Amino acid sequence: MIDFRNCDCMELMAEYEDNHFDLAIVDPPYGIEDKISTGGGSHTKNKTKFHNLYSENSKKWDVRPQKEYFEELLRVSKNQVVFGGNYFSNMLPVSRGWGFWDKQGENMSSVNNELIWTSFDISIKTFSRCHGLDKGFMNKEGGNIHPTQKPVALYTWALSNYAKEGDLILDTHVGSASSLIACHQLGFDVVGCELDEEYYKNARQRIKEQTAQLSFI
User: Fewer CB under 10 Å: which end of the chain, C or N?
Assistant: First the structure.
């Protein structure tokens, strides 16, 4: 079951009691658009072109969440996985169970590896996947529909390492719907939301194209 809504994540979480979700897997905006590298890769050769790509016609997609967001996230979910956790370390509890996305591959020096904060008291886990697999003609998942689209394989890895059978999953920033597709493929019920109406519509279409059988609420 996928419950996917076009709404604000704070409004969504306010509907639920404490610890309603077993696991939240989220990818909030990092607030680093102006710091993203403009070197390497055909789409980054021109700085203006690059930032137009990521600004999406002046959409304010890269607004970093505040402390209240993380307080709600920790309230409604028993455990959490937060991509880009190093950008929010001052708002998250101390943890030794970090994850690491190794964006390996030749000629990928302009791509930063990614840290993943988790609430689990376990050893560090690593996801290795060349960043180039998810860009342009190399993308096998139907093309990019969001500036910070992550591969379905990343969410599959996260669910396989941190979720238990029968867990109810929460995603507060669905974006391209990679998380929802991974949940559907692995048989997890998930609740998610996307604030931007255009991304929401595109994400729903992507889900329909990539899942043979799907139940929406």
Answer: C
